[in-house]
Structures are given as structure tokens and as C-alpha cells.
Amino acid sequence: MSKETKVNVNQLIEQSGKSRWKNFWEKIMPKLLFLTAIISILATIGIVFTLIFETFEFFKRVPLLDYIFGTEWMPFSATAPTYGVLPLVVGTLKVTGIAIVVAVPVGLAVAIYLSEYASDKSRRIIKPILEVLAGVPTIVYGFFALTFVTPLLQEIIPGLKIFNALSPGIIVGIMILPTIASMSEDALSSVPKTMREGALALGATKLEVALKVVLPAALSGIVAAGVLGISRAIGETMIVSLAGGATPRFDGQITDSIQTMTAYIVQVSTGDAGYGTTIYYSIYAVGFTLFIFTLCMNFFASYISKKFREVY
């Protein structure tokens, strides 16, 4: 056997071995990816069924209508505990509403600036700063709200309590600001340049192009960004637990102590109620209520995205 023939045979053997390994991974990878997808689906189903089963146990002890329409939440009362969830819902909506007022206009303004006005150098500076804000732990935001923002607001609003809805609402707005700004900027940047150039050619100013052409064209992405930010605000825990207080209130005051749904879950989970008690099962009912809120927001975002989606 010549040397050249021997080399060719060795190459064929090596290629055959590589081919076998390649075929092996080609067969096994779809199964591994399918298993990963199944695990994520099963985890979601497990979470939902756990919430449902424990919530049913709670409603065996507390009437459903009393829970939905009740305006007093006093589960730790020794004489007559009440489980009307509306004070927790109102507290959550107060914080979320303030966060929306802070985050949506500022986030949209940042997105328009980055998409339409900022130079490459400015964009390289601002985008990483937004990413840093997104990476700050929420407990740090909570201490910041309690020790810095609240005393600062008390100088402006004399009647503001140490625990209130205003301070955590502002900080939650700052927390969701990077999400809204980044996703809105991506939506605005996806609008074709030809639409901008056509509007400019017709005599529109740069601001008119941004507000009357680019913004409506990217509406579905902007709304989806806003809804995602709102969902994060509704589910925020540590900021409202530290700076919001633990007083469920069914009123419109934002200067007094409140309690949100997530803050109540934290309070009970730290050991304030024994296993198997009505208070223990109440955290599952509140968690299921929070789940319904978030699910509705996601469905709304999906509907808006499909209804106003522009295809270029």
C-alpha cells in the first residue's frame, strides 16, 4: 500500500468518526431541546395548579364575594378577621399609577431622543446607563426610596408620612424606566428610514416626523413596552415592602401608609401565620389575584400588538 493511499484511508476513517458524532448530535439535540421546552411548560402548569388548589382551600373558609367586594383587609384581627381584597388592590394600583406617570412619559422621551436625535456617541453613553438602572437590585431601590426620596419629598409635602404610596411609586417608575425606554427605542428604530425621508421631503420638521410619523408607526411596540413595564410595576415586591408600609387602605390618599398585594405576601411569608391557617391560605388567594392581573395585562399587550402592528 502506497503512502498516499494510506493517508487517504486514514482521512476516511477520521471523517467517518466525525460523521458518526455529527449524526449522534443531530439526533439527540432535538430531543434535548424538546425536553427543555416540556420542563418550562410543566413548571408553569405546576405553579398555576398550586395557586388554584390552595386558593380553593381559602375560599372554602372565606366567601368569594366577601373577598372580591370587601373593603376591609384585617386578617390578623383577634376578634373578627376580614378578608376584603380591595384595599390591597387599591394600594397596588396607587403605586402602579404613580409609576406609570413617571416612567411612560420619561421613557418615551428617552426613546425618541435615542432613536431620532442622539448621535452614535451619545447613544453609546446613554444606553449603558439605562442598562445599569435595569440591573440594580430592587431592595437597593427600596432603601433608596425610604432613606433618600421620602425625606426629600417630606421637605416639599409636609404631611407626607414616612411610609407612603408616593415615594415607592416614583422609584418603581424609575425601575421600569429602562424597560420602557429600551423596548420603545427598538420599536421606533424599526420604522423604515424611507418614511422619515418622505415626511422631511414634504416639509415636516424633525419633531413633526418623530411625533406624527414615527411614533404612530411604532405604536404597537410602544404599547407592548408600556404594558410590560406596568406588569413589572404590579408585581414589584421589595420597594413597596420597604417604603410603602403595611396598612391596607381603601381610599385615594397617596401620602399615607399603604399595603400592596406583594407586600402582604411578603409579610405573611416571613412567619406571621402558621401553616394551614386561613391567613396562610390567603397569600395564595392574593397571589392568584396578582396572577390574574398580570395575565390580563399580557393578553392586552398581545391584542394591542396584533391590532396595531405595521408590517414593512
Please tally the β strands and state the result: 2
Characterize the largest beta sheet: strand count, sense, and whether it forms a barrel: 2 strands, antiparallel
User: What is the chains' assembly state?
Assistant: single chain
Second-tier CATH architecture of the largest domain: Orthogonal Bundle
What distance lies between the first and last C-alpha atoms, to the nearest angstrom? 64 Å
The CATH superfamily of the largest domain appears as MetI-like
- Highest CATH level, the class of the largest domain: Mainly Alpha
Order of helices and strands: HHEEHHHHHHHHHH
Blueprint (SSEs and pairs):
Blueprint: H1 3-59, H2 64-69, E1 73-74, E2 82-83, H3 86-117, H4 120-135, H5 138-156, H6 166-189, H7 193-201, H8 206-217, H9 219-234, H10 238-243, H11 261-272, H12 278-307
Antiparallel strand pairs: 1-2
Helix pairs in contact: 1-12, 3-6, 3-9, 4-6, 5-6, 6-9, 7-8, 9-12, 11-12
